[in-house]
Amino acid sequence: MPASATPPFRADHIGSLLRPKDLTQAYRARNEGKMSEAEFRKAQDKAVRAIVALQEKLGFKVVTDGEFRRASYWSHWIDAVDGLSVGESLFKFHDERGTEQTFICPVCKGRLEKVAPISTAEFKFLKSVAKGEPKITMPSPSTFHFWRGDRGLQGSGYASAAAFYDDLSAIYRREIADLAALGCRYVQLDEVAVAILCDPAAREKVKAAGEDPDRLVDLYIGAINEAVKNRPAGVTVGVHVCRGNYKGMYLSEGGYDSVAERFFGGTKLTTTASVESGLRTTGIIRNQGAIMTNIRGIMSDCASRMSLTAAPMAIMSDPIVKNAIKKKMSKYSSNDRSRRPNNENAASTASPTPR
Q1: What's the N-to-C CA distance of the chain in angstroms?
Q2: Single pTM value for the model
Q3: Topology of domain 21-329, CATH
């Protein structure tokens, strides 16, 4: 079969990549007042150029900027949308030993209004340096509600989550339209909440907080559909289903049985989800860049609706990378859930975030 000329492609990657040391040092210097904003932007630009070149050298048809300009995968929305703020999640990262880690999350403090560009500046630069298809990632709509539930709307002026999502979905539609006007053809929504709602323990926690986990799944499916409704022709929208990660800790476990039929059948997307099994990850550093090669489980009953985003073939065919994977994987046990997030070494991030 001929290779697809439009996304989704046979081999893809999620988007967030490990920051190189120079960029981590630049974040730290900027935060300490030792680097100007102009110098910091130059450091970001340099890092993005290098990571784009690495992706293209490895044969990817789709490239991202590694999310190198973001403190977390949702932080740029807080900066650009009045009414959004930050609070502490009701959930915690944990591991098999019982170690826990709190993290910050978005909350709503007032009526929503987009007052600045969200992803368009990122896309403009990425498109200017990329030969491949530039992809923009976005937090899914559930990101702005799930971590504190309706408690996160207290004092916002919204009487219900449905009313909140009416305004938030309109911002998504406007942002996707603005990106399309700049030539963006590929948008990915990063969905964590629905994956967590597969976990029986997490579902019990949601019930204890007075929420109905099944109602939330339906709410978030509806929010996705409203966010991408009437998207411009030629724009592919997909979703990445993620369990959350922070230095070997995770947010949920278990199969997708409780949400699969509704989620994969109910979301009105151009393409379908890439699903993480939470098994293993190999972090591969090469040519002063970093590529995350994710080993994912693909649900057999939904395989015909998914683009294959398991270990990307373009990376796996590289002899140096193959050898690195072989050495790395020999160190992992079968129950290792460790995964290194983009913000693990980010000096700008005061608290871990759930992806």
Answers
A1: 34
A2: 0.78
A3: TIM Barrel (3.20.20)
Pairing of strands 133-134, 104-114: unpaired
| Lookup: tokens for 5 | 């000329």
How far does Cα 351 stand from its chain's mean position? 16
Residue 36 CA to its chain's centroid (Å): 28
308 Rama sector, left if φ>0, alpha if ψ -120 to 50, beta otherwise? beta
| 299-334 confidence digits (pLDDT tens) | 223 333 333 333 333 334 445 544 554 554 444 333
Q: What is the pLDDT of residues 203-254, one digit of tens each?
A: 999 999 899 999 999 999 999 999 999 999 999 999 998 888 777 888 888 7
* Residue 54 identity (one-letter amino acid): L
